[in-house]
Design a protein that fits this description.
Structural class: alpha+beta
Strand content: 15-25%
Radius of gyration: 19 Å
Distance between the termini: 29 Å
Helix content: 25-40%
Order of helices and strands: HEEEEEEHEEHHEHHEEHHH
Length: 275
């Protein structure tokens, strides 16, 4: 049975000490905790997905980052997208990572000045900051507040990496060209990510089975050679190839760290609540 089905069926986290297990795109989460869906400076979107779970360090990060981001940008707060499922693991759609409770998507959209309804949280879409040609940011949507938003996230010491669209990385490099900043080294281009940042935290000290992210290459990633790949025509506008003759084998529980079987088999934490 595909692991994504096993993990998506679990509506509550496992009992046990909180631990991130495995690697960001191949692992699970023991003892996950929820981010409350509404805070003073944040609101969680897409509640029907039940993905507002994470390692306690991720929840603490968001509780600290949300007011800091609001202050830096002038926004009322932030809109939080997907974190992890209650027990982490492969997701049925949307992400290859977000499996060990240390990844979160945060939208490029200021939190409104009122509490969104469940319907609004399902239907509102994030703002795409990249121009239609995918080569630059869109001047109609991009603002200095977006730079402050990304910078504030990257400056947090527990943040390992931030993924953004290549056009956004290029614009950050242009804006910050006069000075070299350590925070900019953490911000790396990746496919998509035009309407949100993907924040990834370091492995917590309490999770010995968490595999660390490989270090970024030396430098801030702003050199032409570092960005050239992302602006090749085939990367910007890929042409779909023929479907594979043999469908790829889905990830099973046996493909995950052995501890993930115990996470799946463990009783639910009766004190945990998604909302």
């Amino acid at each position: 049975e595909p692991a994504k089905q096993l993990f998506s069926e679990k509506k509550l986290p496992s009992i046990g000490k909180a631990m991130a297990i495995g690697y960001y795109p191949r692992g699970c989460l023991q003892g996950g905790v929820p981010l409350p869906v509404t805070g003073k400076t944040w609101q969680v979107m897409r509640l029907s997905r039940n993905r507002n779970w994470g390692h306690p360090e991720l929840v603490k990060f968001l509780e600290r980052f949300a007011p800091a981001a609001a202050k830096a940008t002038g926004w009322h707060g932030i809109l939080v997208g997907d974190m992890a499922q209650p027990r982490g693991g492969p997701l049925p759609f949307g992400h290859a990572s977000h499996q060990i409770g240390l990844d979160v998507d945060i939208w490029f959209m200021p939190m409104p000045d009122h509490e969104l309804s469940k319907k609004e949280r399902e239907e509102i879409s994030a703002i795409d900051l990249v121009a239609p040609d995918r080569l630059h940011v869109d001047p109609k949507n991009w603002t200095p507040a977006d730079v402050a938003f990304i910078k504030t996230a990257a400056e947090q010491p527990e943040v390992e990496r931030i993924f953004v669209n290549a056009a956004i990385k290029k614009e950050l490099c242009r804006v910050e060209a006069k000075e070299k900043h350590a925070w900019l080294e953490k911000v790396r281009p990746w496919y998509g990510h035009a309407d949100h940042i993907h924040v990834r935290l370091k492995c917590p000290a309490d999770s010995p089975n968490c595999r660390k992210q490989e270090p970024v290459p030396a430098g801030d990633g702003c050199a032409d050679k570092d960005l050239a790949f992302w602006f090749k025509p085939g990367v910007l506008h890929p042409t779909p190839g023929p479907p594979p003759k043999v469908p790829p084998k889905p990830i099973t529980l046996a493909d995950l760290p052995p501890a993930c079987k115990a996470v799946i088999d463990a009783p639910a934490n009766p004190k945990a609540a998604a909302q």
